[in-house]
# Entry
Amino acid sequence: MRDVADTSAVDDVDDASDGYDPAAGDGGAADVLVCGVGITPFGRSQATGMQLAVEAVNEALADAGLPWSRVRAAFGGSDAAGNADTLVTRLGLTGVPFVNVRNGCATGGSALVSAVNAIRAGAADVALAVGFDKHPRGAFDPRPADWGLDEAYGSEGLMVTTQFFAMKIQRYMYDHGITPRTLALVAEKAYANGGRNPYAWRREPLDADEILASGMVNDPLTRYMFCSPGQGAVALVLCNREVARGLGGGTAPVALRAAVVRTRRFGSFEVFSPWAPGGTPTSVSTDAARAAFEETGIGPDDIDVCQLQDTESGAEVMHMAECGFCEHGEQERLIASGATAIGGALPVNTDGGCIANGEPIGASGLRQVHEIVQQLRGRAGERQVPGDPRTGFTHVYGAPGVSACTVLTR
Amino acid sequence: MEGALTAVPGRALRGSRCSRCEVAVYPADPACPSCSGPSAPVSLSATGTVWTWTVQRYAPKSPPYAAPEDGFRPFVVGYVELPEGVRILAVLHGVRPEDVRIGMPVTITTGDGVPSARLADPAGVTT
Ligand SMILES: [Zn+2]
# Structure
């Protein structure tokens, strides 16, 4: 993304990028490699979440060229499709320690952090992270009591997640000069990229005018600007450098240089809040992205391809700036100019993101990492970013103010 | 800090404020969410401005939503910023979707339900 402006949100790490040597391979996260990835289709099918998870794990193991018995530590979870550790009955009873993770939208990211730490600590030389889910149509029916709210918030119609997303982008558009057409262009790109992704759910192209005319859900967001609850599974096999050297294979493994999870600080603006503090809201996405970049010593200017949480179009717009890839307000020009398309200066959500893939909560974060790994390996098929990308970034954001980010290089 | 309306029993929003960092919250919380220090109850201002808004265009799922007896109609919801530096989630009554604007002055009260906001009188007198 060399052509895309400066990066105020994380400018304090820019200088560090000068010292980055991708060949060094020493220290910290550079020692954790992604040697195998597996994914299932994200469209609806009869398969259970568990069946999808088994399919993804077996595909990731085959991709790595490792048997299940070589996995020394496993971490995984779903939000609504069961306990990951019971997968051992179908994968094999090898005695592997398998930890369940249930961390909302950060489920995949938290499983990944745990797997990374297992390898960094020397507790495992091969580790698995798996995320899967299957939600019924129109899922996500939050109850006021679960959020510590009076029943009136439910009976008066305020327990609606889409209202929050709409109100956040509504204020952002006012503050930073973003137009509804930019929101439509984000969705148009998502469907275009989904059309190039055989695993995506929504693969029919839609243009900006159709998206704007698709019916207002919560102003300024229309129907086709949102993702839907869905299904899918993703698995990643991680290993240390010694194991990777012994694997051979056609493609060099991708280094997972940082995997970070953060929760919100005071001052953030979150879903189902009866109140919010004044001033400019703080952002857990900024915090997580900054930590991930600091850990790797590379900055947003060095990233060739990225995946940003796009629960709806506005989220992608805001997360471009919150994660440090542009100034607030620059999105209006960047998106219109095609900068975030495949082939642009900063390709965003090259697999179609949540808008084209749906959002199986447990799988979403690992889907992003899967896509970056394939992009860095040059295996992304019709949606391959040109120019031999070497660096990638992923970002998840969810309720109640949690974010997970990764930085990957090859 | 308390305006005339906040003296009306049961109508003003009752929040709390931290004596150390001045952070005001709603509803009242004995501990400050910013510094964890003690907070004291306070009546919040009855007037503020719309900080952000949206329109609920479709009927939310019932339950928990209880539609009016004469049927669902789209309604405006938003955060109202008060002088205490706190933004309150409220239903904006009597405001048509095509008329709502960020910065619009409103009055805010609470009864049995969630906080409720109405357009402030243009002359500045709350209604
Ligand atoms: Zn305080």
